[in-house]
Amino acid sequence: KNMSMLATKLSGGQKQRLVIARSLTVNPKIILLDEPCSSLDMKNTNNIEKMLINLKCEYTIIIVTHNLAQAKRIADKVIFVDCGNIVEVGTTDEIFSNPKDKRTKEYITYMGN
What pLDDT score was predicted for residue 39? Predict the structure, then answer.
């Protein structure tokens, strides 16, 4: 239905899916996404997250996000970065349930997770 539509006419969620689909055409080893669901409604966010969960079985996906709830839903591993420096690395459960670094704990607490 929308195959002939210009990308500029697509919704935000459709544009995100199109960009990810285009990136897959070059058979990448790693997909890097910066805030892939920012400014999207809940339905489109859910669609993007489901797609990323499926894609992570075949690709390494790195997502830069401030959305901690989304990171918890999608990530297998989390890297917490502060002021451009890696502070802590661990599984999603380790980082969110038992952070070792004070800065990680403070940020997670501040963000309400």
Answer: 73
